[in-house]
């Protein structure tokens, strides 16, 4: 909604895609559920959690950029497969959390599932890239920054709540 710059300046493109990335992560229940399932076993912010979140970020950035550059299958069933795999990743992480989650290797799961989620992010980004003008790479990076800011916001709100619920029901 509102006016759209067809050939934006670099800072306009960057801001537009940061906001778009934040909107995408905060409006995507599937990605939020996965993110919450990913961090549930952690009770505080520390290097193990940072490693898991960083692994997820790097992986989804790789496939998001690959998709934006057109390096993905053109088969019409591919988006459906990605959505099914995203749902499966949420179910897997939720079930893993019910038992004894191995947080030592959670970074590997975050990497594998991050590759899948990156394709999911790319489907939301595909139509918007036409508004990047000549700033494709900057817009991709800004979209990733927006996703990360949204994830950090969710984690900042969720981790204290998870710790409180854990302490409350552990008694």
Order of helices and strands: HHHHHH
Largest sheet: none
End-to-end gap: 50 Å
How confident overall, as mean pLDDT? 86
Which shape, going by the Cα principal axes?
Answer: globular
Low-confidence stretches: none
The total of beta strands comes to: 0
Query: In angstroms, what is the radius of gyration?
Result: 17 Å
Tell me the strand percentage band: under 5%
Helix fraction bin: over 70%
Given the structure, what is the number of helices? Answer: 6
**Backbone structural class:** mainly alpha
Task: Tell me what you see in this structure.
With 171 residues, the protein is mostly helical. It has 6 helices and no strands. It has helices at 10-27, 29-39, 47-68, 78-98, 106-125, 136-170. Helix 1 (10-27) packs parallel to helix 6, helix 2 packs parallel to helix 4 and helix 3 (47-68) packs antiparallel against helix 6 (136-170). The N and C termini lie far apart (50 Å).
């Amino acid at each position: 909604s509102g006016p759209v710059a067809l050939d934006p300046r670099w800072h306009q493109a960057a801001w537009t895609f940061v906001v778009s990335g934040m909107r995408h992560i905060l409006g995507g229940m599937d990605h939020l559920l996965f993110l919450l399932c990913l961090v549930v076993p952690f009770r505080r912010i520390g290097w193990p959690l940072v490693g898991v979140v960083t692994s997820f970020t790097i992986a989804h950035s790789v496939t998001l950029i690959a998709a934006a550059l057109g390096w993905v299958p053109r088969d019409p069933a591919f988006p459906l497969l990605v959505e099914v795999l995203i749902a499966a990743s949420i179910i897997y992480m939720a079930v893993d959390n019910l038992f004894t989650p191995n947080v030592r290797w959670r970074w590997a799961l975050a990497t594998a599932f991050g590759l899948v989620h990156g394709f999911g992010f790319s489907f939301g980004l595909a139509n918007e890239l036409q508004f990047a003008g000549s700033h494709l790479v900057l817009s991709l990076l800004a979209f990733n920054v927006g996703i990360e800011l949204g994830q950090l916001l969710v984690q900042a709100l969720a981790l204290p709540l998870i710790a409180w619920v854990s302490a409350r029901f552990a008694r």
